[in-house]
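Bench notes, afternoon.
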Amino acid sequence: MAAQGEQWRNLLASHGLFARLREAAGAAARASKRAQVRSLLFCLDGDLFVWDGEQSAFCTVSLRSLNVEPPALFCYQTLLCINPPLFEVSQVLLSPTQHHVALIGSKGLMVLELPKRWGKHSEFEGGEKTINCRTSPIAERIFTSSTSLTLKHAAWYPSETQEPNLVLLTSDNAIRIYSLKEPLTPVKVISLSNSEEENLLLPKGRSYKASLGEIAVAFDFGPLVAVPKNIVGQRGKEEVQAYPLYILYENGETFLMYISLQHSSKNLGKLLGPLPMHPAAEDNYGYDACAVLCLACIPNILVIATESGILYHCVVLEGEEEDEQTSDKSWDPRSDLIPSLYVFECVELELALKLAAGEDDDPTESDFSCPIKLHKDPSCPVRYHCTHEAGVHSVGLTWTSKLQKFLASDEEDKDSLQELAAEQKCVVEHILCTKPLPCRQPCPIQGFWILSDVSLGTTMICITSTYECITRPLLRTMIRPASPPLLCSRQMDSSIAMSPLRILAESQDTFEKHIRSILIRSSTNPVLLKSNDKDTAPPPEQCLQLLSRATQIFREEYILKQDLAKEEIQRRVKLLIGQKEKQLDDLKYCKEERKSLREMAERLADKYEEAKEKQEDIMNRIKKVLRSFHSQIPVLSDSERDMKKELQAIDEQLQRLGNAIKQVKLKMDYQQKRMEKGTSPPKASIALSAHQRKCIQAVLKEEGEHIQQMVKQINAVRNHVNF
């Protein structure tokens, strides 16, 4: 299964689709010296979708077809746009219902409707090579009427049950929500600026705010929550469910807004903030914020990224009464307290590789900054990925489980929280580097996606500026959250001794964690991409510095830590060998003891049988002695006297019954004689009346019953006497 899972990764880079894209867009990619980062791919049901800007179409590749024999290396479908976009597409975004794809650019937005699937392999339109797809422009009027208006950020409304809606953040500092049913008219328009200032300083106010960073640059939705009733303005009614929308301004401030398309409350969609940040900083944690991401864990974690490569991990906590850092423009004191952001840690990314600076080198040349885009990881809720012009970083938060325990323990010790923040650091991996040398121009990636599939595995897919496909499996298990405990793994009572197998299993788990802690790398060597600039060769000094840096990282972060882990494993092996020898000796001793105990048990069993037979003989002898003893006593006992009286009474009864039997026999002989005489011819006829016959029959019946009772008594007496 492992080899089959790796087959599609090895064959995807050599697929015919990427060869065609390299030939069609190779010259344009080499000519562009400062391109922007794009996200032109996504995966759906095991299919890879890549946007082809030359044809304004999607090219789909079935990843599962690469695992079969022979692999389909030149088969792909093309989804053409009936109404192709006139702007340059920089991002494609799949809807929550997975039926529409948003084509996003700085000067417009269109939605492509995916065709139906059918057939043996569940392909689009039964396997047609080229398919026409319906496309519809969104907010076309505002982009065509205003040449200076640009689209800063766009996202789908996160509901999977309602009709698809798009949320747009434009350069006029406004948020517009559009429905696919009415793509030209916004469902809701939310202004993020003060209306009075906008009327006084219509374009100048905006440019002045943009220079101070008081414009929104990005937003992200949080999970569905219950809105406080004071904000909704309803009392005594059911709670209102809405999505919190975190809006990031360029100056680092974060605002909050509750959005629900099902409820039409005036206070919903109202800007709240800025959210107070603790601990406070003089520079408000930077003035070049560019991206925000909300991780859907408990509690919610907000990630704020700046163009200088700094990431802030903020824990969203409920507001306190002491928080007075609110805005008079947007904050209503009658509503509930706004949540606050606790900056748990700050991480600085190595955007471009930092080489050892020489004496003649200018340290300012190594400084590099660029916008950063944040992507969620569908396979792990506490891990996310950063893409920028110089490559890709992966960040995993390992402290979320301990933070949840701290918040659930109702502790108010701030020192323990600071110790937790000092001990637990996130894991940062530099996966891909497109700017290995300071003299090289960055080669921004054109596509990034995290594939999470049961049969294909969890894989990172990147497409470079030259349309080369790079796949990397994501196997860091230490970042994944712990599985829920089983019912059989409850805490046992301390008085009950644990089994040796359970103790051994727990010790192995602890040793595995110890080895993992040793092998944790603080820095990694990313995958280096060659530059498109083939005319100018890099200086040998920088190449030597790059080689020295890679060698040093391999020596310190890989070889040295592997040697330490090897020593720990060898030490563990020695201890286990000693324990094994001791256990073998104990096992040998136990076997000998078991053999001796078995022989002793056999001897005891024989002795028990002999003792049992002797006991029976002794009991029989005692019975005989007691019987002879009682027979020789001259005086009768009470029971013997009673027995004697009973026997005498029985003897008298037998005599009486014997006399009665003799009388019965005489009567029977007499009757037989009478019967014999009755068979002879009658001398004289005797006539009996009916009354006389009845009386005779009754007398005979009584005598017969009396005779039967006497016979029964005689038989009973005989049986008693015989007994």
